[in-house]
Specification:
With about 260 residues, this protein is an alpha/beta fold. About 45% of the residues lie in helices and about 20% in strands. The chain has one domain: Alpha/Beta hydrolase fold, catalytic domain (Rossmann fold). The two termini are about 25 Å apart. The mean pLDDT is about 95.
Length: about 260
């Protein structure tokens, strides 16, 4: 059941189910809390699971035209404070991983474990920054086509055929994202800084889950990142959308991560 809270005059939607160690699931760009719908039932068997619609996504409002990772993190912390949760595991997919890192930078002592799913502590390179800038210019006049194209490009040809129904459902949710939410999050990702130190300098449990065929994050770069930051690494066979392409393996990896935390 979705609940809501007001943060800086913006509505933030979230869910809070189960009992046990608190686990906060943060979705990616153009997603919302529904991306975890097939994951939550398995994790709630032993844990308290909180999902949050990030600013400008799902049923949560926007706050201006730049949602920095720090602002996203503030909104998440506001929800956790309302729920009186002081210690928790953080699991972030893509954009959600960037926000998890920003949150851990602010409140490292509250983190029991941090898991990046198809995400990275590296900043955008110059080419991706230019792509984000260009997309924000184009999106205002061509929202549906641009979202469809960028979303489908996250999957290889075989995945598009094999997971057609799941992809269509996810795309349906992506198209609900307001243009302002798209622009604000994309700009926030463009300007975010390198946060390797959050992984390398903190003692909480850390895990990076990567897709070997991820078209967004270079696989070799992810291997190097895990090695340099001394972070545990799990490699899955699919691409950027592990919750669709490698759902069972992702669930097992998350269960192990939480159980050993």
């Amino acid at each position: 059941m979705q609940k809501s809270i007001t943060f800086k005059n913006a509505n933030i939607s979230f869910s809070d189910v189960g009992k046990g160690a608190a686990v906060v699931l943060l979705h990616g760009f153009l997603e919302n809390g529904t991306m975890w719908n097939t994951i939550v039932p398995e994790l709630t068997k032993r844990n308290r699971i909180i999902t949050i619609d990030l600013l400008g996504h799902g049923k949560s409002d926007c706050l201006g035209y730049v949602h920095s990772m720090e602002l996203f993190a503030e909104a998440v912390l506001f929800v956790l404070k309302e729920l009186r949760i002081r210690k928790y595991f953080l699991v972030g997919h893509s954009l959600g991983g960037y926000i998890s890192l920003a949150l851990a930078q602010k409140k490292p002592l509250q983190i029991k474990g941090l898991c990046l799913v198809n995400s990275t502590s590296n900043a955008d390179d110059e080419e991706r920054k230019k792509l984000r800038f260009r997309a924000n210019k184009m999106i205002q006049n061509n929202f549906n086509n641009l979202v469809r194209m960028s979303f489908l490009n996250l999957f290889g040809k075989k995945s598009r055929e094999r997971y057609k129904n799941e992809i269509n459902l996810a795309l349906h949710e992506a198209l609900k994202t307001p243009i302002q939410g798209y622009i604000a999050a994309n700009e926030g990702m463009r300007i975010r800084e390198n946060t390797n130190a959050v992984l390398s300098e903190n003692s909480f449990k850390k895990l990076i889950i990567v897709g070997k065929k991820d078209p967004v994050l270079n696989f070799e770069t992810s291997l190097e990142e895990a090695k340099n930051t001394k972070t545990e690494l799990v490699v899955l066979s699919g691409g950027h959308m592990s919750h669709i392409e490698n759902k069972e393996d992702l669930i097992i990896s998350l269960q192990n991560f939480i159980r050993k935390g």
